[in-house]
Amino acid sequence: LQDELERNYRQITAYVENGIANQADLDAVKVEQLNTKQKRVDLVSSRAAYLKMLSLLVGEALSPETVLEKPVPQSTVSAVSEIRRPELALFDAQGAGLQVQEKALNVRHLPQFGLFVQGAYGNPGLDMLKNEFSPYYMAGVRLSWNFGSLYTLKNDRRVIEKKRQQLDNNRDVFLFNTRLEMTQQDQAIHSLEKQMRDDDEIIRLRTNIRKAAEAKVANGTLTVTEMLRELTNESLARQSKAMHEIQRLMGIYQLKYTTNY
After folding, report:
1. Which terminus in the chain has less CB density within 10 A, N or C?
2. CA distance 30 to 21
3. How many whole angstroms separate alpha carbon 10 and alpha carbon 15?
């Protein structure tokens, strides 16, 4: 845009010298040049600020001359892609924990058998009639049964089942919300891709309109202000194309983040 305005400024200067245009027309071009210069200063300042932020994120010094390249996604992600979010691993771990609790519950109400061996040395030993020190030992089987757990078994199982249902519900809700978000992001990407198909044609047509406006100014049938309006429209069309490209890339990486793909 700056180059086009500079070219137009030279042309309008020649028109003023030849009496085709006046000083006001030249001033109008100069105003646009100054506006564009201010916008460029703002863009350069914003770029420097974002480079400093990026430098902090990557832990590497980046100079203002650093050249950034648009990333190219390595894989295609869509609304039907596999979800690999870490939350799913958490749900699986919680489900495994409930299974362990259920197994422990089933074991708790069963009778417990155990073997034991005890040994000692004393007076008297096992033979109470002998008044002397002697070693002795005892071995046997021990049976224990906690009947109290049988009274709460049914309720404990009901509690675990409620927890399992709640876990399954949380998992389904998470998957539904994630799929919904993926669908919205995927549709946004497709919408931008459709717009991008027309961007080049819009720029071509805007360029033709701007050239025609310049020719009309040279013939004295169009004002410089109207010609500058067409020049601005052409510049906006180019900016729109660049914005669509960046928005599409941003949408793709947002979708990759949503799926953890």
Report:
1. C
2. 14
3. 9
Give the 3-state secondary structure of the chain: CHHHHHHHHHHHHHHHHCCCCCHHHHHHHHHHHHHHHHHHHHHHHHHHHHHHHHHHHHCCCCCCCCCCCCCCCCCCCCCCCCCCCHHHHHHHHHHHHHHHHHHHHHHHCCCEEEEEEEEEEECCCCCCCCCCCEEEEEEEEEEECCCHHHHHHHHHHHHHHHHHHHHHHHHHHHHHHHHHHHHHHHHHHHHHHHHHHHHHHHHHHHHHHHHHHHHHHHHCCCCHHHHHHHHHHHHHHHHHHHHHHHHHHHHHHHHHHHHCC
Q: Which stretches in the chain have pLDDT values below 50? A: none
Instruction: Tally Cβ neighbours within 10 Å of residue 210.
Output: 22
Secondary structure class of 138 (helix, strand, coil): strand
Coil vs helix vs strand at 83: coil
* Cα-to-chain-centroid distance, residue 242: 21
Shortest CA distance to 30 belongs to which of 19, 38, 20? 38
